[in-house]
Amino acid sequence: MTSKGPAAGAPAVPLHPDPEWDALCDSELLPELSHAFGGPYHLLLPHRFDANVAAFRAVLAELDVPGALHFAKKANKAAVWVERCAAAGIGVDVASAGELQQALGHGVPGPDIVVTGPAKADDLLRLATAQDCLITVDALDELERLLAIAPPARPRVLLRVHPPQQPASRFGLTGPEVERALHRCTRAGAALRMEGLSFHLAGYAVPPRAALAAHLIGVCARARSLGLPADLIGIGGGFPVDYVPRAAWRDFVAHQQPAHYHAGKTFHADDFYPYHSPTPGAEALRALLSTVPPGHHATVAEQVRAAGHRVLLEPGRALLDRAGCTVFRIQGVKHRPAGDAPPGRPGERPAAYGLLTVDGTSLSLSEQWFNSEFVPDPVLVTPAGRARPGRPYPACVVGASCLESDVLTWRKITFPDRPARGDLLVYGNTAGYQMDSNESSFHDLALPPKVVVESIADRPRWRLDRRTPH
Description:
Order of helices and strands: HHEHEHEHEHEHEHEHEHHHEEEEEEEEEE
Largest sheet: 10 strands, mixed
Distance between the termini: 44 Å
CATH architecture of the largest domain: Alpha-Beta Barrel
Radius of gyration: 24 Å
Number of domains: 2
Helix content: 25-40%
Structural class: alpha/beta
Shape: elongated
CATH class of the largest domain: Alpha Beta
């Protein structure tokens, strides 16, 4: 239950209960690692990644849809995820030569790698072709460059289709461009293998994805009429993650206001990632494949089977759900008295709150990149474990840099007890995009290391991730 009294700050937004993370927060591991590294760090749980992979595979099997799963590597740079892909026999989606080299170096075969991204560099196209990767072509000139540099190898090609539902999108080939590309692939003959089509669609809604998947099936039929094999349908990622309970999320969206944030910061509801989803992860895939698109009489799954196609999936965040957290140590607590914040709604008055300065920066929570906020509440961990109810204390969380904008959490979170220097703040479920999308060694601060926890039985066992930071 959330409180909306004058001193309560914004409504609480706790993550879904997770006994495994609770046990880690109550263990000696977190403070030991904080002392060892002398700064913030990320914890990774690879067995959670494995479970998410299994969930997606189970949906494909249940609906009898042939499919291939590729982890969208941009969601997290850690090597452990690529290692788990190699062990599980799933692919990786990459967009740079560095990502491709890491995937290959950690055991993922070239044919299991999809190379995406617009206007790919020639060196990436050469390497991808040499390793027999599947290359998503985003523009007509890219197709010509690929044909020019590929011989004697035969590149494997997907054509990325511009989404009609999002006419302002910068990705993909328009309808007329797709037709020209199909004819160009036909003229190229044995110089390439045109294996299908894909799309990139912003947002998380299922109906437009289902409609676009059905559209691609139709375009594949056109490609086949020209003699091209075209049996792959790439539906991308965009499978949402359910971070917080429905009631907490609705309460937060309905009641958040400038008085709940440091310096009267203003956020609109559509600034935030949708931290609650009723159909997250593999359930979103089930919903998509079970949808009958407008103008059709069969579900997407039924159409895929009837056409003899395979579906390519590229989830990132959804495979990392509950697979990591980020830990900061509090370096200082500064108290701000009541009255220095702008007034909120009628009947509410600004309340006193604290500024918790941690041993890192907001660059390790990447929603700041989007002028947004990572909303789920961090957990306060004292030397005795998770903080127990005591003196409720509202506070926001700020970074150790000299920039006013270096704020990890603008919202005044009501902690169960007053935080102290040396306590830890644990931001949960940060493996998907939060950890390293916007990292920087600003102020010569070291990048937070990634710690792989491989056993969380009686005595947690850990190691550093095998990726060497750039």
